[in-house]
């Protein structure tokens, strides 16, 4: 990069930095809402499109397949494009996706809309951390990252319950239409607030392959996939379980999902306070706790109170899981953080996709209980693979 470019970056940062960070925070919240709000609308969406709940759950999860590809390809295929416009393009794709889903006349159009969202999800997360590091001085990067990731519990707390309640009141299509003006405003905010971010270095696939050749990193990547796969195997089909087994109506369902989302703030606070230093001893905690939740629901899920407490535990650990595993990545792939970040995003999205697809078959072919047993099995495999965590650490 030339001295003139560096000077331009230095000049722009103090003016636009925090407005740009806030625009990315809103984008995170809208991305999470767009990706996971359909889970709270699974039943009415299936009815409206003339499909089974299992098929609709798989269609919702198709975004994961495209997110995998985007997370690996965006930094290479768009390697020389100004990062400001890449992020703006990802947000525009989110807007188009919402319009297609809201207006979907058929199952196939729903699939196309979710595929476009997947490209947005994978591309945004592959670039987000690197962009944040360019928006603020080095000393402010942790605070900026914390602010950006704060969009996750906000969306988790309000998207699912609001989607469930408004879907019952107005209809599931209206919920997606309601998101479109917010995403349009976020797109405008990106264009205004983000400074010019010329590409500094094109991502090399060789760095990713080099990381995969390291046994400790590959083992950790697989363990993280199992952990996320367990979590979202249960979460994707949570509404059918609560309706069929717990016997909730739309109002109580919204309350339970709100409790789950609000618990995420506790997980964010706790992980920020206690996840410090070497995290080996914490790596199996998410799978251990979250794998116990579907078993707890199978035993106690008929009680709304018991179900609510279990969901709050799941919600708190869900947000802590991201901090634990991303800290592990930062500590054990510090020589190739961009390559590691792309691989982690791809792995997480792959686990969400595979978990939802397999459990869609279990739901349609066997029962809702079978999907929760599958979630617990994935978590158990993660706990066994992690062990005491030492074999997932970079050799000293």
From TrEMBL:
SUPFAM superfamilies: MFS general substrate transporter. The keyword Transmembrane helix applies. It is a multi-pass membrane protein. This is MFS transporter. It is found in: Cell membrane. The chain crosses the membrane at residues 15-39, 59-78, 85-105, 111-132, 144-163, 175-195, 216-238, 250-270, 282-300, 306-328, 340-362, 368-387. PROSITE patterns: MFS. The lineage of its organism: Bacteria, Pseudomonadati, Pseudomonadota, Alphaproteobacteria, Caulobacterales. It comes from the Bacteria. It holds the Pfam family MFS_1. The keyword Nucleotide-binding does not apply. Residues 12-394 form the Major facilitator superfamily (MFS) profile domain. Its main location: membrane. Keywords: Cell membrane, Membrane, Transmembrane, Transmembrane helix.
């Amino acid at each position: 990069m030339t001295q003139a470019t560096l000077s331009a970056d230095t000049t722009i940062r103090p003016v636009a930095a925090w407005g740009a960070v806030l625009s990315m925070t809103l984008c995170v919240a809208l991305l999470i809402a767009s990706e996971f709000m359909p889970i709270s609308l699974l039943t009415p969406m299936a009815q409206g499109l003339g499909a089974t709940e299992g098929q609709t759950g798989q269609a919702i999860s198709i975004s994961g397949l495209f997110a995998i590809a985007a997370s690996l390809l965006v930094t290479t295929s768009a390697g020389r494009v100004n990062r400001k416009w890449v992020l703006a393009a990802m947000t525009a794709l989110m807007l188009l996706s919402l319009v297609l889903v809201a207006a979907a006349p058929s199952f196939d159009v729903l699939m196309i809309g979710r595929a476009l969202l997947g490209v947005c999800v994978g591309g945004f997360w592959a670039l987000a951390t690197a962009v944040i590091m360019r928006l603020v001085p080095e000393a402010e990067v942790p605070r900026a990252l914390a602010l950006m990731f704060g969009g996750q519990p906000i969306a988790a707390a309000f998207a699912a319950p609001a989607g469930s309640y408004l879907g019952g009141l107005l209809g599931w299509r209206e919920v997606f239409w309601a998101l479109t003006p917010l995403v349009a405003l976020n797109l405008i905010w990106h264009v205004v607030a983000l400074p010019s971010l010329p590409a500094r270095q094109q991502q090399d696939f060789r760095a990713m392959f080099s990381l995969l050749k390291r046994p400790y990193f590959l083992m950790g990547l697989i363990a993280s996939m199992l952990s996320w796969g367990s979590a979202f195997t249960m979460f994707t089909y949570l509404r059918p379980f609560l309706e069929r087994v717990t016997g909730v109506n739309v109002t109580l369902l919204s309350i339970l999902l709100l409790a789950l989302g609000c618990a995420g703030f506790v997980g964010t606070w706790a992980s920020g306070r206690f996840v410090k230093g070497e995290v080996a001893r914490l790596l199996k905690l998410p799978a251990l706790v979250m794998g116990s939740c579907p078993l707890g629901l199978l035993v106690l899920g008929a009680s709304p109170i018991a179900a609510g407490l279990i969901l709050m535990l799941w919600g708190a650990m869900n947000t802590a899981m991201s901090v634990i595993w991303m800290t592990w990545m930062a500590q054990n792939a510090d020589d190739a953080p961009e390559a590691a970040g792309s691989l982690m995003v791809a792995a997480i999205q792959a686990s969400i996709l595979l978990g939802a697809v397999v459990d869609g078959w279990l739901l349609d072919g066997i029962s809702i209980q079978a999907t929760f047993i599958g979630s617990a099995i994935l978590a158990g495999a993660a706990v066994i693979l992690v062990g005491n965590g030492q074999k997932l650490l970079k050799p000293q």
